[in-house]
Amino acid sequence: MRKYMVLCLTAALLISGCLNQTNESADTSTETEEYVLSTPDTYKNLESFIYAYQTSDSPNIRSELPTERIYWINDNNPWKTSLKDIQVREGYFSCHYDNGFVLFTHRLSDGKSGLETMIRNNPDAGSKEVQDGFEYYYSEEEEQRDYLWLQDQTNMLELTIPKNVELNLNELISFLEYQTIK
What we know:
The chain is built from four helices and ten strands.
């Protein structure tokens, strides 16, 4: 009787083990994972952004970096542009202006490595330009121009402007301001 029970138990275990393997391999799920960026947090001005940064627990705001900076174009600029809003995502702060300018401050611990990686991984993303000793990367699309550069040797900035706007990037740099946060 004992041999019979051991035989039945062994057979049951083998069958259940085979069934589990069969079910796992037969499972042809049609689900796919989609990676979606979070909705940006939007602030109307620098003061509301700074307040939110200091008080919010939003994943867009929170950062593992010891300090961060946000750069913006000051109001005394020759393009007569003014800040419309600030959008925040996990990877960048973007300042949107009423004339179509968008200034991105990429949230990286090492902007130099980030810029080198971006250029290396996207060789068609821009051509290297040097103007008065200032190095930047430039690209042009149908409706906009894009500039990438390293500010203060550590922060990667990106500026997108409408194609019809004339801009000397060196001149723009003199109208940048920043706020260290955190």
